[in-house]
Every structure is written in structure tokens, then in C-alpha cells.
Design goal:
837 residues; 2 helices; 5-stranded mixed sheet; 68 strands; mainly beta; 5-stranded antiparallel sheet; single chain
Length: 837
């Protein structure tokens, strides 16, 4: 919509923090002078551009008895399990990740290696929880393929005959290092097999005399090995303080996890697992009376009870990493996502009730994968819409920002994927008006409503790739292929077609330039084509753009560098830029020579903005693509009725509708005959807040017609926040006199606007004029309010009377806005009548 929407070219995003800080400074200085004296600073709603976020890099490096060592981005972090606090481990910040030793360390140490000049290796241990555990173990040169488990370091040594022996490096003289005494006939390869460790025991693998794999428990301080009764293929070996376990698909007992009590000679217990595939790799952990396990990588982490109170269930929806913490009866640390998609580091252990509980140690923060770029804004009656482009896809988002003077962040509105700038407009009774493409013909289809799933039902239009120029409660102005179409959304009809030209909707009327008559703007009833009025803008060009707000009409002839604002009530002219302008409720928003959006003292570096002319709110986008919604204008025009309709019914009643100029906090509708003292109101109704249209939900029969009856519509704008002062309080909306549509008794009545405006509560600087007494002969209609249907009975013969008092010049109208440029002082056109005093 020309007066509600502006777009911007997309540019590369700058840093959000820096941009927001710069804007905050500008607002602090600007808004302080933007209000009338004695008022507080206006509120502001900030809505950052929706960015795309994805899973960031997260690596589990090692576990300890009281925490986990992990890496996010470029930092090494330690998250403990007792209060789940995370800190940066600065002691190893310069160590390359590939030199860090993985696995589990019961003393909560970060372990890394570094080569010495003599060919040996230093194993450096850093106590994260307690510096007393800092140490360095020196491994002699000639020790090959170092392996680590439970704080122990194992390596192989070449015997010189093609065979190797396994040793436990203690950090002293090589002669003092225990040599691993494998069972008779067993050998080790150059790379030792180390599967886990706990306390003084290390779980190792070797090759038996017949070439089959063998496994045993190594007592690290003396080299003694106790073989384990492993048969068939085996994997997932685990060692806790009380048990040793492994998984096998064959061998004695069939598929399942074998569990042995440490020190026992009894045959292992076999616990079957309900695997989904006969050949996937299974990773299993014994957690006291339960088994925690998963198949492959990326599947669910599941629990299968051995005995006890727990039940079979899924612990994590997906798992990326899992590792045993060997202390006690065992616990599992895992990195994965829950059913809601939250990625976190979890610790699973059995509690006193016999069930496994989930301790979320750290939620992994998301990282930004793409910047959102806002390309269009629309602000209408408390509803903010903004088009965000993300990774090449446009989406229309929305948020309620309140209908009072100060914006208030409200509920989120529905998203409309694929809706680009120029293809939507707010302001219709039925909801958002948007253009979708018919997949069969490629033609535009107009759909109204706030349901994004309504994609196919709508009104086919005679154009493709068109745009919505403007919208009003029952009309939409659409342009495509060099033609413009006015669409009646209440009846799903194209009621007018014309060449592309300067045009704008105002209620149920169309303001359009006259291509054959430069300087003239016609007011047309689009349904009938009847010209209801004309305005001379005082220029010899044909405007290519029009905007309308109250009595103000903005026009622009960009090709001839001519533009201005014409007040249709006072016949004053105001200078205005020829492009990039938004016309508000007696104010202009435009960009200055430096390219900054200028509204009073507000100077943000935004190039995308939209305004809610009826509510005095402004939305703009900063350089960091954050949407700001603020209220620089603290004095706005009173509530009014833009137009109404009172259709007759066959039953002799009527069903009326009134369109308000802005949202009302509450409404009251009263019908009464002021000259008839014998009875009370014929109708007195109240209701809650209205977004803009009040439709009478029932038929009302008036009985015998009388020409002196009057219909009064009142809107009670209840105080909101600090705006509870008198000028924002109660105000009548409009009055209508009722005359019979045709002679004879029992005929339906029709409503027409009264001439004199409703009583208002203006700012203190403009006290209200005395209210005229009721007159038995109603005065003729006010031209500013003649937006109802064409009168079928003879219209009043007297000419329209001027307003009782001219609107204040810009210097007064901006009293609540501040710092008006001298060039904005209106000029009266030569030959035009002066405003009444």
C-alpha cells in the first residue's frame, strides 16, 4: 500500500550488536524532544529479523568423575555435574585438539601429549577441578603407539625380531615399567588394544595362539592379565567398579549383553536387546540395573532394564556421542537431541528409586547459519507485517503491536511463506489481502484472510505478476500489465478497471488522478463510477502517486520533480519530497539529503519504514535488520467513521455497518429520537474492542418512520497506560440522521451523516467549540464525512459549510512531534478562500 508500505534494496548484513547500539544512541537524543512538554519518553518495540540457526560444532573430548571436557567453536569448556556451570579451560587453550587424549579420567583431568627432542613423549595432566592433580608423565623414546585408559598409559616396544611386547609406562626408568604378561601363546600387534579402565584395572585385547581375538583384565601396576570368557564376535566392552560387560550377537547365550561381576568366576549373564537390524553396530553401557544402548550413529538412545523398577523406553531421540563414566555402578554421558529437537549434553545414572534419570548438563547453543534481511514493512491498525528474506526465500511474518499510542509487543501473527513485497496488504475486513499464483494458469489470485493454509480458494484476477497498491475495508486496488483494478472483496467482484495512474483508496472511495486534466484529482465511487468530488492540487502535472490521510492528500509527479501535500479542508499547500514519502496523520516521514529517515528529531539510519497513520506509530528497520516500532507522534486525530452502509431488509428493518478510522478500545451504539421525550433509546448496545469495523449483528425494526430521528454512534476509548488524560478519553464517533427511503408507513430507514462533526476532546491548546443545540432541521452533510452510499432521496440544497475551525497549521499540528522545518509551514493558494476564523 502506498501510504502504509515501503521496501528497501537488500544489502549485506552488519553486526547486530553494533547496529543496535548506534540506533539506541540516536533514539535517546531524538525522542526526548519528540513529545509535548510533561510527557514521558515513548515506548519502542524491537523485532529482530528472523535469522536461520543450526546446530553448532560440539565435540566431547573427555569425561571425568565430576564433569565433561568439550569444545564449542574455538574454546575448550568444562561443564561440571554438580551445579552444571561451564567455564573456559584456559590452561589448555593453546593445545591443538588432535593432541588431547580422549576417554575417561576419574581425577577430572585434561590430558594431552607433546613430543620431546629426545624422541620421547610427555603426557601432561591438568587438574581441572583440583590443580593438585597436575602432573607430567615422561614416556621414554622407543615406546610406540601410546594408548590411555583410566589414567594409565600403555605402549608397545619392538623386540627386534618382528614381535612386540606391551608395557605400562609409569614415567620412571624404563626398566621399572611393568611388562604385560599375556596368556600362554598370546601376542600383541604393534598397536595395543586398550578398551577401558577403572581404578587399577585396564581392559585390553590381544591375539590368542590360534589367531582368534582374546580379552582380559590387566592389573596395571604389576602386568598380570586375567582372561575373560569371551566367545564369538564381541564389541562394546565396558568396565565399571562392579562389572565388566560386552555385546555379542553369537556365542553362548545368543544375542545380547554379557555381564560379569568383577572377581566372579561364574558364567556371564546374557541380557537380550531388541535390536532393529541383525548387523548394525551396537553400543551398550551397563548402568546398575539397566542397559543404555544405541544402534549405529544418529539413532535413538534406548533403555532396557535388567532388573528393578525401570521400564523399556527411549532416552534421547538421536544420539551423536556416548561414553561411560566408570565410577560406582556406571553412568553414561551422551550428546544428542530430545524429542523436541533440543541438543544438549546429558548424564544418565540410576537414582535411589531404581530408575535412570536424565541430568541435562548443558544445552548446546545454536549458531547462526544465515542472516535475515527485511525487505518490506506494513503497519495497519496495530498489526505489523514484515517480509524477511532468508537463504533466498521470502516469508511474511507478523506481530501485534497494540492499537494505542505507545506500541506494545503482542501475539505473533501467522507466517505466510513465499509472500514477497508488493503481494500483500492489510486493511481489509476479511483480513490480510494477498496475491498467490494459480499453478495451472500462472495468473494472480486474490485471497483474503489470516489463514496461510488457504492457498487455492480466492478470486482469479486478470493479470500475472501484479501487485497490491492499496486496501480498504471492502476494496483492494490491484495493478498488473499497465492496468489497475478495484476489487470488491465483500462481493468478490472486479468493480472498476482503469489505466495505471496515481490512485489510492479512502474508505469506500477511490482518489485518482485525471490523465487528461493535469492538476486534478477526482474522487470516484468505484462501484458506480460516479465522480463524487474533485480537488485541484495546484500543479500542471498528472500525479503518478497519491496518498491519503484524513483531509490531507499527498501527490507526486516524480518525472517532473514536483510534489506536495494538499489539505482538502483548508486548501493549504505544503511542500514535500517527490519520492520516498509516507503521509501520516498530519505529518510526513521522508528521507533527508544524507539518506536518513527523518521524522521530527528521530534520525535512525533505516531505509525501510512503514507507518500506522491512524495510530501515530512508526515502524522502521535499522542497519542490523531489527524492526523498531515506536510512537513519535503523541497527538493524533480523534476517532471517526470513514463510511457506513445501512442495507434494507425485506422485513422492514436494517442491518448496518460502520467503519471506524482507527481501532477503538470499546464501542457503544445508541439510536434515539432527540425531539421525542416520551421514550428512551430504541437501541443501546455496548461491546469490547473493535479492530475497525462494527457490524450490527441483528436486524432492528424502527416502526413508523419519522424524519427527525437521529442515529448516534459513540466510541468509548478507555484510558490505556499513561494516555488516560482528557484528550484521549471519551469521544463521539459520528451522528446520522434517519430519513425514509420512500414514502409510506413501515418502510425501512437509511442513515446519512450529519453536517456538524462529533464532539471531541482535543489537546489543551485547542479547546473544543461550544456544542450546537439540537435543531429540528438537520444541517446539510459535511463533505469530509460524505463517504456513505449515494443518497437516493433529494440531497440537501445548501452548499457544504466549512468546518467550524480550521485544523492547525503544521507548526501546531506537530506540537507533540517536535522540530518542524521552516519549509513545512503551509502556504495558502492565491485565490483560495481563507479558513474560517
Amino acid at each position: 500500500m502506498s501510504r502504509h508500505l515501503y521496501t528497501t534494496s537488500r544489502t549485506r548484513r552488519t553486526g547486530r550488536a553494533a547496529g543496535a547500539a548506534a540506533i539506541a544512541v540516536a533514539l535517546t537524543g531524538g525522542l526526548a524532544t519528540a513529545h509535548a512538554a510533561g510527557t514521558t519518553e515513548a515506548a519502542e518495540v524491537l523485532i529482530p529479523a528472523p535469522d536461520a540457526f543450526g546446530d553448532g560444532p560440539e565435540t566431547i573430548l573427555a569425561t571425568g568423575r565430576y564433569g565433561v571436557l568439550h569444545r564449542e567453536g574455538g574454546s575448550y569448556l568444562w561443564t561440571n555435574s554438580y551445579n552444571r556451570r561451564t567455564r573456559v579451560v584456559t590452561e589448555i587453550e593453546s593445545v591443538p585438539q588432535e593432541l588431547l587424549v580422549g576417554g575417561h579420567d576419574e581425577h577430572n583431568r585434561a590430558v594431552y601429549t607433546q613430543q620431546r627432542a629426545d624422541g620421547g613423549t610427555d603426557v601432561v595432566r591438568v587438574g581441572i577441578e583440583d590443580p593438585a592433580f597436575n602432573s607430567t608423565l615422561k614416556v621414554p623414546a622407543g615406546y610406540l603407539n601410546l594408548r590411555y585408559a583410566g589414567g594409565w598409559v600403555l605402549a608397545t616396544v619392538d623386540r627386534g625380531d618382528g614381535t612386540y611386547e606391551m608395557r605400562v609406562a609409569l614415567g620412571g626408568e624404563p626398566s621399572a615399567d611393568p611388562v604385560v604378561r599375556l596368556p600362554a601363546g598370546a601376542t600383541t600387534d604393534a598397536e595395543p588394544v586398550v578398551l577401558g579402565g577403572q581404578s587399577s584395572d585396564v581392559l585390553i585385547g590381544y591375539r590368542l595362539a590360534d589367531g582368534s581375538p582374546g580379552y582380559g583384565l590387566l592389573t596395571a601396576y604389576d602386568g598380570r592379565v586375567t582372561p575373560l570368557p569371551v566367545t564369538g564376535d564381541a564389541s562394546s566392552f565396558r568396565l565399571t567398579q562392579t562389572t565388566v560387560s560386552w555385546f555379542s550377537r553369537d556365542g553362548s547365550g545368543g544375542q545380547g549383553v554379557r555381564i560379569m561381576q568383577r572377581g566372579s568366576t561364574a558364567a556371564p549373564r546374557v541380557v537380550p536387546l531388541p535390536t532393529t537390524s541383525p548387523d548394525t553396530e551396537v553400543t551398550s553401557f551397563v548402568v546398575e540395573d539397566n542397559i543404555v544402548w544405541h544402534e549405529g550413529i544418529g539413532g535413538p538412545l534406548r533403555l532396557t532394564p535388567i532388573t528393578g523398577a525401570d521400564t523399556e523406553r527411549t532416552l534421547l531421540h538421536t544420539v551423536e556421542f556416548a561414553q561411560l563414566r566408570a565410577e560406582g555402578h556406571g553412568s553414561v554421558l551422551a550428546l544428542g537431541k530430545d524429542a523436541d529437537g533440543k541438543r544438549a549434553i546429558h548424564s544418565f545414572s540410576q537414582d535411589g528409586s531404581g530408575t535412570v534419570f536424565d541430568l541435562v548438563m548443558r544445552e548446546v547453543p545454536k549458531v547462526k547459519t544465515a542472516d535475515g534481511e527485511i525487505g518490506a514493512l506494513s503497519l495497519d491498525r496495530g498489526r505489523l507485517r514484515y517480509v524477511n528474506s532468508l537463504a533466498g526465500k521470502d516469508t511474511l511474518h507478523g506481530k501485534a503491536v497494540g492499537t494505542g499510542l505507545d506500541p506494545v509487543e503482542g501475539a505473533r501473527l501467522a507466517d505466510f511463506p513465499g509472500l514477497a513485497a508488493g503481494r500483500f496488504a492489510d486493511g481489509a475486513d476479511e483480513g490480510l489481502a494477498r496475491l498467490v499464483t494459480d499453478p495451472g494458469t500462472g495468473a494472480d489470485v486474490l485471497v483474503t484472510g489470516d489463514d496461510p493454509d488457504q492457498q487455492t480458494e480466492g478470486l482469479p484476477l486478470p493479470g500475472t505478476g501484479g501487485r497490491v497498491i492499496d486496501a480498504s475495508p471492502e476494496l483492494v486496488l490491484y495493478e498488473a500489465g499497465g492496468r489497475q483494478y478495484v476489487i470488491d472483496t465483500a462481493r468478490d467482484l472486479v468493480v472498476r478497471e482503469q489505466p495505471s495512474q496515481g490512485a489510492v483508496l479512502d474508505g469506500n472511495l477511490l482518489y485518482k488522478s485525471a490523465p487528461s486534466k493535469p492538476g486534478r484529482v477526482n474522487v470516484v465511487d468505484p462501484r458506480t463510477g460516479r465522480v463524487t468530488g474533485t480537488h485541484d492540487i495546484g500543479s500542471d502535472c498528472v500525479p503518478g502517486e497519491l496518498q491519503r490521510s484524513g483531509t490531507l492528500l499527498y501527490w507526486s509527479c516524480a518525472s517532473e520533480d514536483a510534489a506536495g501535500v494538499y489539505d482538502t479542508a483548508t486548501h493549504h499547500d505544503y511542500p514535500a519530497p517527490e519520492s520516498g514519502v509516507l503521509l501520516g496523520d498530519r505529518f510526513l516521514a521522508a528521507r533527508d539529503a544524507a539518506g536518513n529517515l527523518r521524522l521530527t528529531a528521530l534520525r535512525p539510519d533505516g531505509s525501510t519504514w512503514a507507518l500506522d497513520a491512524a495510530a501515530g506509530k512508526l515502524a522502521w528497520v535499522g542497519t542490523d535488520h531489527t524492526v523498531h516500532v515506536t510512537a513519535p507522534q503523541q497527538a493524533v486525530s480523534p476517532l471517526g467513521v470513514t463510511h457506513s452502509t445501512v442495507p434494507a431488509t425485506s422485513a422492514g428493518g436494517w442491518n448496518a455497518a460502520w467503519w471506524l478510522s482507527k481501532s477503538a478500545a470499546s464501542w457503544r451504539l445508541t439510536l434515539h429520537p432527540p425531539l421525542d421525550r416520551r421514550g428512551g433509546p430504541h437501541l443501546d448496545g455496548r461491546g469490547s474492542a473493535r479492530h475497525g469495523t462494527r457490524r450490527l449483528g441483528r436486524y432492528v425494526r424502527l416502526g413508523r418512520p419519522r424524519a427527525d430521528r437521529r442515529l448516534h454512534v459513540e466510541a468509548d476509548r478507555r484510558p490505556r497506560g499513561r494516555h488516560g488524560c482528557g484528550r484521549h478519553g471519551l469521544g463521539h464517533v459520528a451522528g446520522h440522521r434517519l430519513i425514509p427511503a420512500r414514502s409510506g408507513g413501515g418502510r425501512p430507514w437509511r442513515a446519512f451523516p450529519l453536517r456538524h462533526p462529533p464532539a471531541q476532546n482535543p489537546p489543551p491548546s485547542n479547546p473544543p467549540p461550544p456544542k450546537p443545540p439540537p435543531s429540528p432541521n438537520p444541517p446539510p452533510p459535511n463533505p469530509e464525512e460524505s463517504k456513505s452510499e449515494p443518497e437516493k432521496s433529494p440531497p440537501p440544497q445548501s452548499p457544504p459549510a466549512p468546518p467550524p475551525k480550521s485544523p492547525p497549521p503544521y507548526s501546531e499540528a506537530y506540537a507533540g512531534v517536535a522540530s518542524i522545518e521552516p519549509s513545512m509551514v503551509p502556504t495558502r493558494r492565491p485565490g483560495s478562500r481563507p479558513p474560517p476564523k
